[in-house]
Amino acid sequence: MFTLPQKNFRAPTTCLGPTCMQDMDSSHGDDLEGECSRKVDQKLPGVGDPAMLSSGTSYLSSRGRMIKWFWDLAEEGYRTYHMDEYDEDKNPSGIINFGTSENKLCFDLLSRRLSQSDMQWVEPSLLQYPDWRGHLFLREEIAKFLTFYCKSPVPLRPENVVVLNGGASLFSALATVLCEVGEAFLIPTPYYGAITQHVCLYGNVRLAYVYLDSEVTGLDTRPFQLTVEKLEMALREAYSEGVKVKGVILINPQNPLGDVYSPEELQEYLVFAKRHKLHVIVDEVYMLSVFEESVGYRSVLSLERLPDPQRTHVMWATSKDFGMSGLRFATLYTENQDVATAVASLCRYHGLSGLVQYQMAQLLRDRDWINQVYLPENHARLKAAHTYVSEELRALGIPFLSRGAGFFIWVDLRKYLPKGTFEEEMLLWRRFLDNKVLLSFGKAFECKEPGWFRFVFSDQAHRLRLGEQPTFPAQSSLQPSLWPLLFVPTHHAIGASRPLASPF
Amino acid sequence: MSENRYRGAGQPAEACTATWSISHWSDTHPVPSGQVLRDQSIYTQLLEMTLHLRQTVRKHFVQLMSREGLLQERRHAEAVHEQGALLDRLLCQMINLLQSGATSGLELQVPLPAEDSRGDVRYGQGTQLSGQPDPVSQMSDCEAAFVSRDLSNRGIDISALYQSKSQDYNDKNTLGFINLGTSENKLCVDLMTERLQESDMNCIEETLLQYPARGGQPFLREEVARFLTYYCRAPAPLDPENVVVLNGCCSVFSALAMVLCDSGEAFLIPTPFYGGFAFSSHLYSKVELIPVHLESKITAVNTYPFQLTVDKLEEALLEARLEGKIIRGLVLTNPQNPLGDIYSPDSLMKYLEFAKRCDLHVIIDEIYMLSVFDESITFHSVLSMKSLPDRNRTHVIWGTSKDFGISGFRFGALYTHNKEVASAVSAFSFLHSISGIVQHKLCQLLQNTEWIDKVYLPTYHFRLWKAHKYVTAKLKSLEIPFLNRSSGLYVWINLKKYLDPCTFEEEQLLYRRFLDHKLLLSCGKAYMCKEPGWFRLVFADELPRLKLAMRRFCDVLEERKQDLRVKQLEPPASQPEAPACHLLRYPLMSASSPEGRDVFLSGL
Fold first, then answer.
1. Contacts of A100 in chain B (CB under 8 A)
2. Which of B36, B150, B168 to mutate to test the interface with A (most CBs of A within 10 A)?
3. C-alpha radius of gyration, chain A, whole number
4. Would you say B200 and A69 are in contact if contact means Cβ atoms under 8 Å apart?
5. From first to last of its 504 residues, what are the pLDDT tens digits of chain A?
């Protein structure tokens, strides 16, 4: 859903709650905190003002203040966006959002399907308190659906399914029931940054990063490759810092890299996890958004034998694959009944409406529509949008990564940073925003190298193109939404000292 | 908890200790040896042990100090000796728990000693002070009692708590059980089904399928503000900016507890109260609820049963503060659940002023606000007040679950004048979000005040009134005292006369007996009621089901009457042995006679 357009989000994340407070005093917390408040002071007067963190004027508890401060920071970029959102008719010069990973390509198909009469069903049991794991009819449908689309060798079972109102809730619940306060999950970076908040907000669980490089070295065959050695190293490091690691989070297809793990790699990571008795949370929320068939995506549920089935937990949702992030539907599949029950115990707080549960069951049941209408069309549109954007990038001579899965391209703008720092990355991000384009910068994904950006391409062509945009100078050969990309180096070449000032 | 149970202070020390130790062990280790202890958390274990320990230490010193009664010196020494042994044993157990936790790595849940390792519950003369269990053998016992390695301690705790609270509701309901325990409004399903199928309900817009704004879609927040302005009779239009919508009132409460309190801090709450609060404050936010105990007896200060007064609030606050607790707020439910009481504007004002005086937030849950079915009674929402004593510390919760009978919709709203609080709570909206499609339906539902005023509410209130009339007439004919109120979906009934002795243990047995007859009620203990014997009976169900339920209800009570008659005929010595261990655990607390007439019969 959304990433953090603020450089300094790490400190507050690991700083929620009592454990985090202690951390601030420890050696590695110190400088972060200092840096944090300074930056905030300079850049965002009024927003997340550290003065709010003092108890004098506030009605909130200290964790309440921390949560609010943190979220205000996180939403800064989005606030600017929401105040000046692009709209074809009402605000044609508004900001275009290429930062939020949403699939806006298939609304026509979805609205037609969701308006059909089978979706309008209302019956008493849907209006009353449900089984907190989710209605049985839905869990049965999910089990069948996942068996089919994940190509599971055996039929998956409804009792291993738990239904929640979105992936955020699921991360939160899993973190809470698998970890104690202050414990951690390993996660390879760059990764979908919002997970940081999901596991922290209620659970007070942190993430231990497995930093990956863009440079291909040693036995690696591609940029940002995850290997067992890197996992081992990160685990050792976490232990040496006294952080107890309880599991690994893998996102497959990967966000923001647009990459997939091969079955062999997946197997290796799972064996690694088993060796260290770690849980593995596999987030497969983009599983049906693989639009290049050559990619050869395999779900973890398709593996013949899971090394440690009791510690392997799979997530899926309709937010991405069915372009319905506003519907709030996610599901957990785990063979571990203790984990399923514990997550279900929290579902009173993360439940979704019975009517929506019914609609989801109808949708997932309709294989004809999914296979013959929705998926082919969705993939074709994703592919077209991807081709369009990647060709533009090639024309601009901008390197990027994207292998044909997900909604995004991981763009390398390092050459546009005068200095390879995250401050410069932030300035460039701001420059885009000033030019009415919202992107996500690499720091929000905890990328180790400054200068990477995520560009979401799953949007309508007219928004991608914006040919008639009046605010942009008429340069017919260039697509204005990509125009700022080209503008940046020119600007630096003439040595402008105020990068924040908009040239327009 | 333990204080309630062991109020039998006037009893001989020996007997007291004996019952105490038995109850302690059977309480904390309900699972036979060898069986997997999945549901136990080391924290609850340790907490409970520490509480027991504290109490024993107190008793121990009382014993040591009291030198009167020289004749009983030997007995006195024995008691001291026994308590000493018990103290040692408890400490040893706690050390064991901690040790096994440390040695088995953080991920291994700390196992508990098996029951058979402590056969000598009495600590008789043979048991010496040195007779503490060998830690090593304890440990191997522990390993036998293996518990789930996959969950965190809090995960285990959450599962256990959840299962203890809800298994009856979920599992039993499908097997022909009639559920008069869950407060659900099943009276207007026909109206709602019809309304929700109307064409305005079905709308698929692009924004509804995309990530919602923090705190809820603006159109829904605007509608909620309008709705509350109208139905709460707010003196000025309420501000949509002050509304946060989440997927249920329990989510709102949970998020409020997170942002108003730090872990370990507390709210005051008058008892009996809706048990869901305890659940919601414990699960994520670890906020404690300090009960303000109310009594059913009418006295000089209590002009009606379970009256909440500022004095009682003051007293509870003082006591809690003396114990070092940090109290951040007061939780009120109005209309009250389970009592069905409605606070008068005057009393409400007094509570609010008390809170202001003591710098407390007030969370007011008005989820039953439209479920007042007697026209002669006016409900005054806190939002209707001309001026609130402390606007920035008053937070109102409302939802559609009860008033519209759509608990499966998952919708709850917060209204607070405090923008800072609204903003902090809305940070949780991604974890408690509502589907865009449902937000649209809710907006349509709340918008149509004509249908609500002309069709829905009159029908709903009439049906509530009729169901209430049916149930209360039955109760009267059975001579069962109850609180006769005209709001909410339930009656609070007193079955004390069917308990002998009048203990929570007996209350639980009676509850089980209802279950045996496929009838689900909620017992007073679940509402932290101080007096055993109270039950909440939900009547918002259709008549045929209610009739069957009341027949089962009568059967159980008739059966119980027979039992009690037989019991009274038998000489005390030959009391049945089988359930004796249960009874033993709870020394007689109050000698309330089953025949004792309650002062407040129906009609209040």
1. 211
2. B150
3. 23
4. no
5. 333 333 333 333 333 333 333 333 333 333 323 333 333 333 333 334 444 455 567 899 999 998 888 888 877 777 888 888 888 888 888 888 899 999 999 999 999 999 999 998 999 889 988 888 999 999 999 999 999 999 999 999 999 999 999 999 999 999 999 999 999 999 999 999 999 999 999 999 999 999 999 999 888 889 999 999 999 999 999 999 999 999 999 999 999 999 999 999 999 999 999 999 999 999 999 999 999 989 889 999 999 999 999 999 999 999 999 999 999 999 999 999 999 999 999 999 999 999 999 999 999 999 999 999 999 999 999 999 999 999 989 998 999 998 899 999 999 999 999 999 999 999 999 999 888 899 999 999 999 999 999 999 998 877 777 533 333 333 333 344 455 554 443 333 333 333 322 222
B525 and B508 Cβ atoms separated by less than 8 Å: yes
Catalogue all structural domains in chain A, each as residue range(s) with its CATH number. 73-106+371-471 (3.90.1150.10), 122-366 (3.40.640.10)
Tell me A4's DSSP state. -
Nearest CB neighbour to B38, from listed A201, A324, A338: A338
Residue B137, token pair as written in the block? 């053998």
Q: Could you say which residues from 209 to 238 on chain B have a Cβ atom under 8 Å away from some Cβ of chain A?
A: 209-214
**What is the C-alpha to C-alpha distance for residues B302 and B308, in angstroms, rounded to an integer?**
8
Question: What is the distance between the alpha carbons of residues B30 and A10, in angstroms, rounded to a whole number?
Answer: 45
Q: Which residues of B touch A15 (CB under 8 A)?
A: none
Would an 8 Å CB–CB cutoff place B108 in contact with chain A? Answer: no
Class of domain B205-448: alpha beta
Q: Enumerate the domain spans of chain B.
A: 205-448, 454-567
- CATH 3.90.1150.10, domain B454-567, yes or no: yes
Would you call A1 and B211 a contact, using CB atoms and an 8 Å cutoff? yes
Question: How far apart, in whole angstroms, are the C-alpha atoms of residue B514 and residue B179?
Answer: 11
The DSSP code for A88 is: T
B332 touches B364 (CB < 8 A): yes
- Residue at A8: amino acid letter: N
Closest residue on chain B to A179 (Cα): B152
**Residue with the two structure tokens 């994940």:** A150
Distance from CA of A323 to the nearest CA of B (A): 7
Burial class (CB in 10 A: 0-12, 13-18, 19+), B306: buried
Residues in chain B: 604
Query: Phi first, then psi: what are they for B17, rounded to 5°?
Result: -65, -45
Which residue in chain B has the smallest CA separation from A124? Answer: B189
Q: If DSSP codes are grouped into helix, strand and coil, which group holds residue A488?
A: helix
What is A8-30 written as a DSSP string? T-HHHHTTSHHHHHHHHHSHHHH
Indicate which of A49, A54, A60 best probes the interface with B, i.e. most B CBs within 10 Å of its own CB.
Answer: A60
Calculate ∠ Cα A426-A430-A433, nearest 5°.
Answer: 145
Q: Which chain A residues are Cβ-neighbours of B161 within 8 angstroms? A: 345
Return d(Cα B40, Cα B36) in angstroms, integer. Answer: 10
Confirm whether the ipTM is greater than 0.95: no
| Nearest alpha carbon to residue A451 among A492, A397, A415 | A415
- Give the pair of three-digit tokens for residue A424: 């410069």
